[in-house]
Design a protein that fits this description.
elongated
């Protein structure tokens, strides 16, 4: 049985750790509420953007536009959104597992894989992969990202697709569903061609000014930007939610450990007291 001094040190150490995990839980809960509100408020905008993209796909000549044209996929670019730090449960693991499955499918199909990472965890993982071309690394954009933060990512995607260096672009992120449910998903953003079988009102007889090509060019870029923006907000809400739950579980485990060690400490102290009494009694009997 450990000594009472060792048990005291362990209890003190766990109490200090519990203070840290409790503080991180409260901070993550506060950040999660703000991130959750931002993600929910912008979902209607994303849905409207997706609906507009669906309508644009009904145009007769949309397939000839550079951003809508579908090509045989021989190279694919992934945008992987992770966090800068750990202690967020399975948040990073779920996204990277989805990424690994996509890379395996690419290798089986002999498709060249490129990646842009957002967050240090994704960058650390991508650097260790063989046969994957790492185009750019961005740190996580903080709790209040702006449109200027994602503009370099958007420009890289557009330029790579226009120059036919890639044939498809996908974004891997975590969708926030509830405080206890988040789901890693893979969303195709280029080509800007919706093929989910959803019907939309035709726009075949709509007039465009100054021209159809210019309208498609501007609209497609903005609509792709909306998808990236929403993916970033969903990821932030999911990260803070999963970190809050992880820290809550750590705090609960610390409480259980403290209770068990306190019981062990009391048992060890009682045994020491009993042994001292026995020694005193034995000494008194010996003197008699």
């Amino acid at each position: 049985m450990p000594s009472t001094t060792a048990l005291k040190h362990r209890i003190k150490s766990i109490r200090n750790t519990r203070q840290i995990t409790k503080a991180m839980e409260l901070v993550s809960a506060s950040k999660m509420r703000r991130a959750q509100d931002r993600a929910k408020l912008s979902r209607d905008y994303q849905n409207a953007a997706y609906d507009l993209l669906l309508r644009l796909n009904s145009l007769p000549d949309v397939g000839s536009h550079p951003l809508f044209a579908k090509r045989k996929v021989s190279s694919r670019l992934y945008v992987v959104i992770t966090s800068n730090s750990g202690l967020a449960g399975a948040y990073n693991y779920n996204v990277l597992r989805e990424f690994t499955a996509a890379l395996k499918a690419d290798r089986d199909s002999q498709v060249t894989s490129y990646v842009i990472t957002i967050g240090h965890k994704g960058a650390q993982f991508a650097r260790r992969l063989a046969g994957v071309h790492l185009l750019a690394v961005y740190p996580a954009f903080g709790d209040e990202p702006t449109a200027n933060d994602i503009r370099p990512v958007l420009n890289t995607l557009i330029d790579e697709y226009r120059d036919k260096k890639i044939d498809e672009a996908q974004i891997l992120y975590t969708v926030f569903k509830s405080n206890i449910s988040q789901q890693a998903t893979n969303l195709s953003i280029l080509p800007a061609h919706v093929t989910d079988g959803t019907s939309a009102p035709t726009m075949a007889f709509t007039n465009f000014e100054p021209s159809l090509e210019e309208v498609l060019d501007s609209a497609a870029i903005r609509l792709i930007e909306v998808q990236i923006w929403q993916a970033l907000l969903e990821s932030l809400a999911s990260e803070h939610s999963m970190r809050m739950l992880a820290m809550k579980n750590a705090t609960d485990n610390a409480n259980d450990l403290i209770d068990n060690l306190t019981l062990e400490f009391n048992t060890a102290r009682q045994a020491a007291i009993t042994q001292e009494l026995a020694e005193i009694t034995g000494g008194a009997e010996a003197i008699k």
